[in-house]
Design brief:
This is 4-hydroxy-tetrahydrodipicolinate reductase. This protein is of the alpha/beta class. It is 32% helix and 19% strand. The chain has 2 domains: 148 residues, Dihydrodipicolinate Reductase, domain 2, CATH 3.30.360.10; 161 residues, Rossmann fold (3-Layer(aba) Sandwich), CATH 3.40.50. The strands form 3 sheets. A 6-stranded parallel sheet has the order 3-2-7-8-9-14, with helices on both faces. It has a 5-stranded mixed sheet with strand order 1-13-12-10-11.
Length: 350
């Protein structure tokens, strides 16, 4: 059973000041146990309690992408599969803003085959499953520098990767699921260039990398501490976030005992509005995570939080990955398979 995050009875917790995106959602957020997510607790204990360390990452959609539209197009044609989906549309918009060229073709379902979708100034023809190999080979011949972007469905991960590798097209894959060992082996055996990462949000990946470093360098630093985790996503996401699992794994290396079944999953829209503080316009696309650590005697508390509204953070990270991969292909880099950490380490993101 999922546990509910509770405020320790004998500990004053100074909550991280919320961003404006949370502030406009209301002033009082209570869960069934009385935990107030928006509460400002004044210090009635020792001054040390006002120095509880906190880390927080918040991301909201970039509202002025048009202002940064480059004057010249970058010679990187990209094919965005599942362009009719919300993520596909966000990636195409980010590609337009970055100056990349979106090819007028995309893979979709059999039901969508033959349909044309308008995304911004791009008119894109959908090709069904039966046309995939022929279409991709034709596009590669027409656009020799083509890179495919894949945000489709978990069940298509391996088949799609095998197709890209068979035709010899570099690709960026943000789709989760599938047989990951088989996926990586497919790419390594084919020697096709690829960036594969289930998390494309650059800042979130940087946070995860920092957590990994802390776990590796300070194992057992939180031994004996208890952990409570809350994560809220759109109702269509039924499983526990992969990002949450990665962060929890780091805490486990740091000495915290925790079972994944204890994660408090928030998928009810009313709870997301009233308890978590998700803006109504982002109920269909958000990722709010909070990790609460307490010492055995509940005199010390830590909070780690990262909140994402919309999909722009993932779309921007995807475009950085495309540009990164194009450079690797152009330079004929020896390494072929990359992840988002490699993109971050390059240090030349927009």
């Amino acid at each position: 059973m999922a546990s509910t995050l509770k405020l320790p009875a004998n500990c004053v917790v100074v909550q991280q000041q919320r961003r404006a995106v949370l502030a406009r959602a209301g002033t009082s957020r209570l869960d069934a146990t009385g935990f107030n997510w928006k509460q400002r607790v004044s210090s009635s204990s020792s001054s040390a309690m006002n120095m509880i360390p906190k880390m927080s990452i918040s991301a909201i959609p970039n509202q002025s992408l048009e202002k940064s539209l480059p004057k010249n197009k970058i010679d990187i044609p990209i094919m965005v599969n599942s362009c009719s989906g919300k993520m596909g549309k966000a990636i195409i918009q980010a590609a337009d803003s970055a100056g990349l060229s979106v090819v007028p073709a995309s893979f979709g379902s059999a039901e969508e085959s033959g349909q044309t979708f308008q995304v911004g100034a791009n008119e894109i023809l959908i090709h069904g499953p039966d046309e995939r190999e022929r279409t991709l080979a034709s596009l590669l011949e027409k656009y020799p520098n083509l890179i495919v972007v894949d945000f489709t469905v978990p069940s298509a991960v391996n088949d799609n990767a095998e197709l890209y590798c068979k035709v010899g097209v570099p690709f960026v894959m943000g789709t989760t699921g599938g047989d990951r060992d088989r996926l990586y082996k497919t790419v390594e055996d084919s020697q096709v260039y690829a960036v594969i990462s289930p998390q494309m949000g650059k800042q979130v990946v940087a946070f995860l990398a920092a957590m990994e470093i802390m776990a590796e360098q300070f194992p057992g630093a939180f031994s004996g501490y208890s952990l409570q985790v809350m994560e809220s996503h759109q109702a269509s996401k039924v499983d526990t976030s992969g990002t949450a699992k990665a962060v929890i794994s780091c805490f486990q290396k740091l000495g915290v005992s925790f079972d994944m079944e204890q994660v408090q999953l928030i998928r009810d829209s009313q709870q997301q509005l009233e308890m978590v503080g998700v803006p109504e316009e982002h109920l269909s696309g958000h990722a709010f995570h909070m990790y609460h650590l307490s010492s055995p005697d509940e005199t010390v508390s830590f909070e780690f939080q990262h909140n994402v509204c919309g999909r722009s953070i993932y779309a921007e990270g995807t475009i950085d990955s495309v540009i990164f991969l194009a450079k690797k292909v152009h330079s004929k880099a020896e390494k072929r398979l990359y992840n988002m950490i490699d993109v971050l380490r390059e240090g030349n993101m927009r």
